[in-house]
Amino acid sequence: MTKQADFDAIVVGSGISGGWAAKELTERGLKVLLLERGKAVRHRQDYDMEGVPPWDLPNRNEIPEAELDKHYKVQRDCYAFKEATKKHFVKDSENPYEHPEDKPFKWIRGYQTGGRSLLWNRQCYRLGEIDFAANKLDGHGVDWPIRYADIAPWYDRAEEFAGISGSMEGLPQVPDGVFQPPMEMTYVEEDCKKKLETSFPGRKMIIGRTAHLTKPTEEQMKLGRLACKSRNECERGCSFGAYFSSQSATLPAAERTGNLTMVHNAVVQRINFDEASNRATGVYVVDAVTNERREYTGKMVFMCASTLPTTQIMLNSKSERFPNGIANDSGTLGHYLMDHMGGMSGGGRIAGFLDKYQIGRRPNGVYIPRYSNIDDKDDRFLRGFGFQGGSWRQGWNRGGDIRGVGEDLKAELRQPGPWGFAMGGFGEMLPYKSNRVWLDDKIVDQWHMPILHVDCEFGDNEKAMAKAIADDIRGMLEAMGATDIWLNPDPAPPGLMIHEMGTARMGHDPATSVLNSVNQAHDVPNLFVTDGSCMTSSACQNPSLTYMALTARAADAAADMLAEGTL
Ligand SMILES: Cc1cc2nc3c(=O)[nH]c(=O)nc-3n(C[C@H](O)[C@H](O)[C@H](O)COP(=O)(O)OP(=O)(O)OC[C@H]3O[C@@H](n4cnc5c(N)ncnc54)[C@H](O)[C@@H]3O)c2cc1C
Question: What backbone phi and psi angles, to 5 degrees, belong to 45?
Fold first, then answer.
């Protein structure tokens, strides 16, 4: 066993939350060790698929069935998983987990520098007051220990640094923030918006709020970031640094302080704990390549490995004091797993606008924020849902829609086809104790880590909501004048919306929650958990912006405590 030097803070994971923790803590002058289990993916140098056209990609960017079956049984279901991006996803064959056969759970992961910040779809919406109050109001889950006013300044900070483009709308369910200029809607979207808002007063269609630079600030340019060029191949990595990733934004900011040490291939397995001081002392790591065992020590530990790995590590951190996992006096660690409910989708053809075309490949769409259970109560279900969607003009590959042979066919293929509009719902999932993860001590992975069992399913509220979402999609498409409407009314299995949350929730009461109002473990004062596992409810907005804000807020509190000597 090798013992390593002492740090002020150890951050586990370099994805969205870990990058933010590293930036904020190093900027406060702390010496930070950032541990990442995956390989190094360097900004610019390692984006080798960037700009490669489909005809130069193996299999025209598709992945052979045999390879999918052998290595990617789960990842293959992610829309962004392609030949050009597969190196940013894990091989399922090397990273096993279990779930009951009748309760599928799709765990989509990226283990490398930046985690899934390289891969994400970058949609960013604040949670509103209604979300932080929801548990208390209807009694599902425990009360959030914070309210919107507590996090609002940290949303400002996260948006300003990350660079979020969007429009000011004055909607309390998705509060406005510090935005760069919004991207534009297409003519078709403008028209759909008008028709939707006329037919359904109370519903709004807005341009997506997205972590892309449209007017970089001086600070962003100092970090080498430029405005988005609308190439829409973000998941391969972007040398312009135009979308927010750890590589483009938080890691360079942390590095320039001179306070960051980053180690790759460091699979954290346990948080070490000293009973006498009641403090975490550091972490135990297995090197993913050499299998070497190491321990690192630090004055505090920030868990940012993403929801399920963080909880896996915490459950695996057993001691006499914590036989069921560190900071688990409440017995809630591993419980109340949530994802968003999605997959219900629909679309149709929009007539006209044949003299219009979209410019570039806008990496963004439109958003219809939540409208249910805000002013009026919908008796069919609790909470609410939003929609992401967009319009496009069909290209040459419109299959059977184009008839003819020879010259006529070729001429027709050169013309853009009709316009379409499609949308998909994102519904809030309630926190249920029975939705949980636990360790199977009998099965370990190749690094000797007990694997996770995931036991998660949607409840009656989600099923009622899924039906309402599908009905509303049809109603809205009809109102927009869409024809040839197609509809998929069925929710995808949990996990597939890639918004796993909960399992180490925040709360007022140490008897019913793991973390306090600044993401500090109730039971172990120098342990902080700031990724999605901290979420007390899921709301229906894409959650990563909230992880950024919560992480920045927690890092500030932790740095204060360290300075005051109260940690
Ligand atoms: C295709 C796709 C689209 C998405 N779209 C959106 C969107 O539009 N909006 C949105 O809000 N969210 C979106 N998400 C989700 C978003 O990516 C995640 O919410 C976010 O990345 C979570 O941040 P994180 O830091 O908690 O985890 P991650 O970004 O996953 O990072 C976790 C890091 O921890 C490392 N790690 C894990 N275990 C260990 C260990 N034992 N030891 C050391 N390191 C470890 C991992 O390798 C990884 O680098 C999307 C995700 C995907 C894949």
Answer: -55, -35
